[in-house]
Amino acid sequence: MAPPPFPSLKPKANLPLTTILPSQIYVVDDFLSPSELKAVRSWTDGVMMEEPKKPGKGEAERTARRGALDSPDIAAVLLRMLEPYLPQLSPKYTAAPALSPNIRVYHYPTGTYFRSHYDSPTLDARTRRLSCWTVLVYLSSDVKGGGTSFYTGTYDIGGGAKRKGGAKKGKSDGSDTGGGGGKVTVEPKAGRLLFHWHGMSGGGCLRHEGDEVISGDKWVLRTDVLA
């Protein structure tokens, strides 16, 4: 069954892009208004969700539910919202602005998590372009825990070379703690937009994880920027 129509969203003027870690992590707060948050969160109830599966060999454990749909229309809505921030990102974004139509919804009930891993550049079948920035929009208020934590110094090294700790792209690092370097956590503030780099240059993706949700229900909307 198809989900209901995606809500209408309005681009916001003068919202600052905040640098959390240069060339890797950026956020925009209040990307969605309270009414838009409510509408998008209601929309997620119509998305077919999959229960978590036992991870394969070398894969990171994810205990959250996940839904995915192919929607160029939703990608276009989100692109209108976030396009003003793309020129401000580093590594410098010079491509024709585009988002992946692979729209994902994540649901993290209390006690769930996503162990440390790397995101992978993924080829878009329509445009033959690789993804380069992960885009997360946090949809829930009153969540304790559930941050997205990054381990500095654990670079993916350009998408093909050996990673620190021997982790493979898109796979678990074999550790429950991430390891290596310092730790930077982005809290899942309702309405917040997170960009984090996973492209083929600039050191590649940082090892990161979805922290355990201590209380509440964390919902996240995801797409990717195409290089």
UniProtKB/TrEMBL annotation:
Annotated SMART domains: P4Hc
Superkingdom, according to UniProt?
Eukaryota
Note down the stretches annotated as region Disordered. 162-183
User: Per its UniProt record, what InterPro entries does this chain match?
Assistant: Oxoglu/Fe-dep_dioxygenase_dom (IPR005123), P4HA-like (IPR045054), Pro_4_hyd_alph (IPR006620), Pro_4_hyd_alph_FE2OG_OXY (IPR044862)
Q: Report the cofactors.
A: L-ascorbate
Q: Which residues form the Fe2OG dioxygenase domain?
A: 97-227
Q: GO terms for molecular function, please? A: iron ion binding; L-ascorbic acid binding; procollagen-proline 4-dioxygenase activity
UniProt cross-references to PANTHER family, sorted A to Z: PROLYL 4-HYDROXYLASE ALPHA SUBUNIT, PROLYL 4-HYDROXYLASE ALPHA SUBUNIT DOMAIN-CONTAINING PROTEIN
Name the chain's protein. Answer: Fe2OG dioxygenase domain-containing protein
